[in-house]
Amino acid sequence: MNLVKAIGFKVISAFLFACLSALVRQIGDAVPVGQIVFFRSACAIPPVLLIYALRGEFREAVRTTRVFGQIGRGSLSVCGMYSNFAALQRLPLADQTAISFASPLITVALAAFILKERVRVYRWSAVFIGFIGVIVMLIPHLDFSQYMVAGTMSVAAIGSLLALSSAFFNAGTTIQTRRLTQSEATSSIVFYFSLMTALAGLASLPFAWHTPNAYELTLLVSCGLFGGIGHIFLTESYRHAPASVIAPFDYSAMLWALLLGYWLFGELPTALVYAGASIVVAAGLFVIWRERKLGIGHKDEAEGPRTAEI
Fold first, then answer.
1. Could you give the CA distance from residue 161 to residue 169 in angstroms, rounded to a whole number?
2. In 3-state terms, what secondary structure has residue 106?
3. Most distant CA atoms of the chain, gap in Å
4. How far apart are CA 240 and CA 13, in angstroms?
5. N or C: which end of the chain has fewer CB within 10 A?
6. What pLDDT, in 10s, does the model give residues 212-234?
7. Cβ atoms within 10 Å, residue 165
8. 88, 100 in Cβ contact below 8 A?
9. Does residue 301 lie in a domain region?
């Protein structure tokens, strides 16, 4: 165990994923979501494969014995990434990040129903309280009087629902990852995630394509590099300490989102978003503490702070 390396790598990965989200928000008005998904995934594959090749793990990365399991996980990842990027086009960076923290709480609920894990009243209570926090965060974006009059949803409301949908898809991805890690290598899971999301983004190009200028192309390629290198740092962090020890540092992503959102876009969350995010983070930390106390060791090496799948 090397806590300094583990925590350092975890915080770096959270920063890189926050930078990726900021890039998506920056370019989202000009470039279709599918095109961003393609560049984020396709440009992440070379650095990931290079690292695995240098470690002598290239064959392990491309080998799989559970094709349909990889396809199932990849499909959930595609849905999570599309909804995540679409939410970033419509919401302040910190708001989207805060809502995404509901994903670990959703994972607890799904694990009870799908994996038949034993979830006691303490963790169920944390899930319930966490969802109260999500509702508090959603209040500023949900104007019900507007729906009564116009029958339409505001951009922020759509973004909030997309962010919440992304949290559900990422929770499903986590559940599928737990199944795959019983027989598949982490490198294989990461590689096929990138491959499937790249193909899904490529499939959308005939329907919506924006020819990027040099600046936009730089941002698009950077999305992939930040995502790929962030995944590498994330995986490395789990090599040096148990997941339950370093998982709380997932929430450093909120700090990076606040700083980047204010610096790049002049965005500051409302008081309700701060309050709701605090409730969700507290609930999430309680779940982490409870799982560590019970000695529940889930293999989350391939998962990101929200989810990775961003």
1. 12
2. helix
3. 62
4. 14
5. N
6. 999 999 999 999 999 988 888 88
7. 18
8. no
9. no
Q: How far apart are the first and last CA of the chain?
A: 28
Quick one: tokens of 11? 């915080």
Q: Which residue has the tokens 């302040």?
A: 92
Which residue, 27, 45, 21, is CA-closest to 210?
A: 27
Cβ atoms of 16 and 230 within 8 Å: the answer is yes
- 8-state DSSP, 102: T
> Which residue in 133, 130, 129, 137 sits closest to 157, CA to CA?
137
- Domain assignment present for residue 306? The answer is no
* pTM more than 0.85: yes
pLDDT in tens, 77-114: 999 999 999 999 999 999 999 999 999 889 888 888 88
Spatial distance between the Cα atoms of 240 and 235, rounded to a whole number of angstroms: 10
Amino acid of residue 77? S
Burial of 56 (0-12, 13-18, 19+ CB in 10 A): exposed
Of 126-130, 133-137, 202-206, 230-234, which range is least confident? Answer: 230-234
In a domain, 93, yes or no: yes
Dist CA 79 CA 81 (whole Å)? 6
213 phi/psi in degrees, rounded to 5: -80, 180
Q: Give the pLDDT of residue 299.
A: 44
Question: Structurally, how many domains does the chain consist of?
Answer: 1
In a domain, 148, yes or no: yes
Give the range of the structural domain holding residue 99, as residue numbers without chain letter: 3-294
Calpha distance 300→270 (Å, rounded): 32
Pair of tokens at residue 97? 């990040």
Structure tokens at 140: 């500023």
